[in-house]
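Sequence in, structure out.
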Amino acid sequence: MTTQLRIYTARPGRLDAWVEAWQTLVVPLRRRFGFEISGSWVDVARQQHLWVVSHPGPQSFEEANADYWRSPERVALGLDPHEYLLDEEIRTVEPVL
């Protein structure tokens, strides 16, 4: 199973709006596509949203992610992350505990 830590830096004044859109639109659709979201946090001082997402398979994370992004359901969300976010850092992580 692949797990990613995603760190998003919001545009000034857009962190709360991003988190709300992410919670109401992105999370339910990600789950429908078989992704598991195991945590989500905000770092207000840095205007960042951090979350952990994994995909247990049978597809690879990359395949499932590509299917998610090109799906009609994702397009229908009408949500462009670049309207909310300045930067995105994605790290593939391994559990140690």
